[in-house]
Amino acid sequence: MKCAMLVDVDHGRVSPKRCTSRTSSVGQHCYLSCSPGYRVVGNPVRTCQTSGLWSPETTSPYCEKDSLKPFIQCPSDVQVDLAPHMSSAYVRLPQPKANVDWFSSPSG
């Protein structure tokens, strides 16, 4: 049993490329990622099922314009007293609060 080719998504990319260029075998996973400035709506992972249908069988995921404005809130000031005769100290700063992914590379 095979699943039909997935269609390309506006402002996004389905990978691996074979998911949109030919039928897929049972168990094949296909992933949707969106262009910068867009976000995935729905489940970005589709899997070819033994029924020949893609799972999940709900509405196909798509990319929509990301309307969230970046937000960042810096932590409060940190003050550290040095021990007598010390010229430096190890200071651990808390991560700022934000609505961005800290682990992805910025692009523009």
Automatic annotation (TrEMBL):
Q: Which Pfam families match?
A: Sushi (PF00084)
Superkingdom of origin organism:
Eukaryota
Q: Which PROSITE patterns match?
A: SUSHI
- Which SUPFAM superfamilies is this protein grouped with? Complement control module/SCR domain
Question: Which InterPro entries is this protein grouped with?
Answer: Sushi/SCR/CCP_sf (IPR035976), Sushi_SCR_CCP_dom (IPR000436)
Q: Tell me where in this chain the Sushi domain is found.
A: 1-65
Q: Which UniProt keywords are listed?
A: Disulfide bond, Sushi
What residues form the membrane-spanning segments?
A: none
What is the official name of this protein in its record? Sushi, von Willebrand factor type A, EGF and pentraxin domain-containing protein 1
Biological classification of the source: Eukaryota, Metazoa, Ecdysozoa, Arthropoda, Crustacea
Q: Which gene encodes it?
A: Svep1_4
